[in-house]
User: What shape does this take?
Amino acid sequence: MLSAFFFILAAVAAGLWWFERRQRLAAQAAHQAELTALKAAHAAAQEDQHQRLEALLDSMVEGLVVLDPVGRITLSNRAAENLFGFSRLMIGGTLLEAVRNHEVAALATRLTKEPVILDHELRLEGATHRILQINGAALTDTSGGRAGAVLVFHDLTRLRELEGARQDFVANVSHELRTPLSLIKSAAETLIDGAKADPVALERLLAIIDRHADRLTLLIDDLLLLAKLDSGRIALNLQPCGARTAVQQALDDLAPKAATRAMRLENLLPDGLLVLADPDRLSQVLSNLVDNGIKYGRACGVVSVSGRALGNGRVELCVRDDGPGIPAEAKNRVFERFYRVDKARSREQGGTGLGLAIVKHVVLAHGGEVRVESEVGQGAAFYFTMPAAPEAR
Assistant: This one.
């Protein structure tokens, strides 16, 4: 009996031991599963945080590169990669390998070795000319040791171009204003000195004053118009306009000027070609282009205006002359303010130097495009598009 009792007791003890072991194993498994889930959640959170950081950095306009203490790239954004033409595969490589610029690499090396704040302007020469402002700082860890460096690249190219254009514009305006003002002042001083007593001299000097006062007025009007076009403050009175009629009005207005050079003006547009435009601004574009053709076309030559429907809701007009043409290097600049291919002849012919700039901005305000096709010795053809009137589409 006693042996049976001890046997039962041993069996119960063994069962309890196995039960407790299974409980411990189950608890360990649950704990391990919980740890695994926590690790997975932590990894997912880290990945999400990393993706958020990448998205934030890639939304920056400025380029950014972070380096470790030995100068290897640990982080970069899309703007920096686009500036220097490297990919995110360069993470872990040196900055010199990525940017291929010794000056940038030298600046970065200095930052990783010295606790300095960097502010440096750099010109990148190559296929695309760039001007960069580089700001950088050394990084430190929690113990104050060196942890690498961060560099931020600001692309100043467009800003510098705009500054240069503004300086050129101010210089050109000053010159254009000074010339007629000097002539007006000179004529007035001559009159004050007694020339008014001579009727012939009086008439000649008053004509000079009148002519150059008109030139000043025209220049100021053109400058004000360009300012309105630039700012988008000009209201367009859009309505269907007969292209042939608008061209004929411009040709009739300029016929006396063409006659002084024995030039023929031709209207080659078909009837029924309608554009959706502001009539006054369309007239201004046509007058400026035809006037340009008269100025630079061959004496006894022809200035013609043609046009066609493009079939995409646009109408294209072309003003063509048979003058000396435009050099290839000047074709991209003829629509700039005050740009003149032949400065001496332009000043002799008069005008403000703003006519083609006005053409470009008026056409753009209508949602159109403008271009020039020309070869030296073969004349020039100025093309521009306007929206077709709804009934003509």
Notes: The longest strand covers residues 130-140. The chain has ten helices and twelve strands. The radius of gyration is 38 Å. The mean pLDDT is 83.
